[in-house]
């Protein structure tokens, strides 16, 4: 099969969407298929990339490091015909996603859309009319979904959510897969040696973008309560990633008196992120906007139990009481579960083992096989929308 992937975010930008595209593309290539990526151009990209087509783009005014593609190309349809594309898979309902949808319509190709993001939850990036922006975003993403032959969601809770918004086309659960073995080969000493963390200190780890939607101020306040806990356990919080809230979060950490106990690593290379998982005792995650929470799956693959806020896709990533804990949006309850896991070695050992076992459900190879089957079904039996576009 020949698959054309249209995405509004791609490397060198880092995100869960980018990791999903990269992981599935690598697995599909291993299965003998061809994947072509249509993505924004970044200034850092100079060398010619195999099977990647870049569009002129401009820097986002509200999201540093993110480029917005200009979805114009006079040669695109001719290129898709020349490549003999069988199916188009879009990863956004905006810009390049809409361009991909138009190409699917004009060429009569099946169109798949992965609903990676709760777009309406990101209205805070708009400086004005946020409520109106949220409603318009819901309407636009729902209308776009209904132009597709199939919508993929990483968790069923997101499937139910978009059904409630009015999505009527077939919806199928397909999480982003994880290369399990990669996360079992990290160096547990790297994190402590790199950042001067003592052997007796417990490590709480967060991996992700430092943006408002990740609710990291909640983590910092809960961490303050952990340090003030009755056992006075020596603990260090490590935040891996970069983003627009980095400066504000550093200020908050200092205001809470935890600045010296909090490590901001900034963006790290993939191997170093894996080493961070290997060196952590607990994974902590407070985002309430996740469609999946891929980083929780990565932590599980590394054998790291999680404490997370029970919201949207995260609720399906943590088996409460088995490989971690889910809490309400309460800093006290969150800190309490952290302290419980840090103080009970047997409970921690049991949850770590369960995390490794449960991570197998997210094997990248298994999920790529499922995606291959979905593609093949749509290609061999074109749905009604493909026939009438």
Explain what this protein looks like in three dimensions.
- With 389 residues, this protein is an alpha/beta fold.
- The protein folds into two domains: 2-177 and 364-388, Glycogen Phosphorylase B (Rossmann fold, 3-Layer(aba) Sandwich); 180-361, Rossmann fold, CATH 3.40.50.2000.
- Helices cover 41% and strands 17% of the residues.
- It has 15 helices and 15 strands.
- α1 (16-30) crosses α14 and α7 (216-227) crosses α12.
- The two termini are 21 Å apart.
- The model has no long low-confidence stretch (mean pLDDT 92).
Give a short summary of the structure.
The chain has 389 residues and is α/β, with parallel strands linked by helices. It contains 15 helices and 15 strands.
Fill in the keyword field for this structure.
single chain; 389 residues; alpha/beta; Rossmann fold; 2 domains; 6-stranded parallel beta sheet; 15 strands; 17% strand
Low-confidence stretches: none
Classified by CATH, the class of the largest domain is Alpha Beta
Q: What is the overall pLDDT average?
A: 92
Series of H and E elements: EHEEEEHEHEHEHEHEHEHEHEHEHEHHHH
CATH topology of the largest domain: Rossmann fold
Side-by-side strand order of the widest sheet: 3-2-1-6-7-8-9
**Nearest-angstrom radius of gyration?**
21 Å
């Amino acid at each position: 099969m020949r698959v054309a992937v249209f995405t509004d975010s791609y490397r060198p930008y880092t995100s869960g969407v980018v990791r999903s595209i990269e992981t599935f593309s690598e697995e599909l290539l291993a299965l003998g298929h061809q994947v072509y990526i249509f993505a924004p151009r970044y200034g850092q990209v100079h060398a010619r990339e195999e099977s990647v087509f870049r569009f002129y783009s401009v820097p986002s005014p509200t999201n540093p490091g993110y480029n917005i593609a200009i979805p114009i190309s006079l040669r695109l349809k001719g290129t898709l015909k020349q490549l003999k594309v069988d199916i188009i898979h879009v990863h956004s309902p905006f810009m390049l996603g809409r361009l991909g949808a138009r190409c699917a319509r004009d060429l009569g190709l099946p169109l798949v859309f992965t609903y990676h993001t709760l777009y309406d939850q990101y209205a805070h990036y708009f400086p004005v009319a946020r409520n109106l922006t949220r409603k318009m975003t819901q309407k636009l993403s729902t209308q776009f979904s209904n132009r597709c032959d199939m919508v993929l969601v990483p968790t069923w809770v997101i499937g139910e959510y978009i059904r409630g918004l009015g999505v009527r086309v077939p919806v199928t659960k397909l999480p982003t897969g994880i290369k399990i073995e990669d996360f079992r080969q990290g160096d547990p000493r790297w994190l402590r040696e790199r950042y001067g963390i003592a052997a007796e200190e417990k490590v709480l780890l967060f991996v992700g973008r430092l943006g408002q939607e990740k609710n990291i101020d909640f983590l910092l306040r809960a961490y303050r309560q952990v340090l003030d806990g009755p056992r006075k356990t020596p603990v260090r919080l490590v935040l891996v990633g970069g983003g627009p809230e980095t400066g504000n979060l550093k200020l908050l950490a200092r205001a809470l008196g935890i600045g010296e106990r909090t490590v901001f690593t900034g963006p790290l290379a993939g191997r170093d992120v894996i080493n961070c998982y290997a060196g952590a005792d607990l994974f902590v995650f407070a985002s309430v906007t996740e469609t999946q929470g891929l980083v929780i799956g990565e932590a599980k693959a590394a054998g790291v139990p999680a404490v997370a806020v029970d919201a949207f896709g995260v609720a399906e990533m943590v088996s409460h009481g088995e490989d971690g804990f889910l809490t309400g949006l309460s800093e006290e309850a969150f800190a309490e579960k952290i302290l419980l896991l840090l103080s009970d070695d047997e409970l921690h050992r049991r949850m770590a083992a369960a995390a490794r076992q449960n991570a197998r459900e997210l094997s990248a190879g298994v999920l790529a096989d499922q995606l291959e089957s979905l593609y093949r079904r749509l290609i061999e039996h074109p749905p009604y929308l493909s026939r009438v576009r």
